[in-house]
Amino acid sequence: MRALATLSRFVGNTFALWVLVFALLAFLQPQWFISLKVAIVPLLGLVMFGMGLTLKLDDFAEVFRHPWRVGLGVVAHFVIMPGVAWVLCQLFHLPPEIAVGVILVGCCPSGTSSNVMTWLAKGDLALSVAIAAVTTLLAPLLTPTLIWLLASAWMPVSFWDMFWSILQLVMLPIVLGVVAQRLLGKAVAVAVEVLPLVSVVSIVMIVCAVVAASQAKIAESGLLIMAVVMLHNGFGYLLGYFTGRLCGLPFAQRKSLALEVGMQNSGLGAALAAAHISPIAAVPSALFSVWHNISGALLSTYFRRMKE
């Protein structure tokens, strides 16, 4: 078990590498991974169940200690990322399915890896965890609302279909994870040690499925989508950081805000796009998953060395 826990930590720390390697492999050999399409939704549910296993009341203590900081992070996340996505879609005149995919990933809650990046950056980890938890819990309402408001100009989007999907993909697994944690107690601690391995394998499989299903479209317009994804992520970091600065947050909190705003739950975006729109609409989420783990690691290293 100790060896498995060590492997889990290693895989978790090298997350970006595995996503990149297997995304390239899925692009070059799509027939190897195309059958994974049917597993996208269960895999995301498994990741969210793991999040539920690790959630504690202490994670929400920051909400009560510094509610305005957490509120600022949540508002910044759900304003900046959807807004930047909409602007980029207008500027680049993206095709409808791709535009909806970009907006969809912009409307998702914070990514789970943002907490790791905040810790590496020597940011305020308690604030980061609180923002990620609150954005995730608000996602069933805010994510479909924002997608419906911003993406309907390109394609018809059903609020209720998205709402029920997010309840099933996010809230139900998280609640089951919290319940399991309460009922099983110490037994869960053993499972938590291997959760990074389970999460990385699940997200890598989701990315592979999306890339394999859309290989031809990626070959045709992948560079354009990648450019939009990189700009989206970069502006998220930048505007998140300067939002904190304008509001007078200390340096550690500014780092947390930058990473929480710029990093998305792209696995959720890919699952929603594949289920409700099309495989090509899931490509921005898949590429975001590859890129934000690379950029997040680079930014956290820079933040770690940066003087206030």
UniProtKB/TrEMBL annotation:
One Pfam family it belongs to: SBF
Key words, A-Z: Membrane, Transmembrane, Transmembrane helix
Transmembrane domains' residue ranges: 7-28, 34-55, 67-88, 94-113, 125-150, 162-180, 187-212, 224-244
Keyword Translocase among record annotations: no
Membrane topology classification: Multi-pass membrane protein
Keyword Transit peptide: no
Compartments where located: Membrane
Alphabetical list of InterPro entries matching this protein: BilAc:Na_symport/Acr3 (IPR002657), Bilac:Na_transpt (IPR004710), Na+/solute_symporter_sf (IPR038770)
Protein name as annotated: Bile acid:sodium symporter family protein
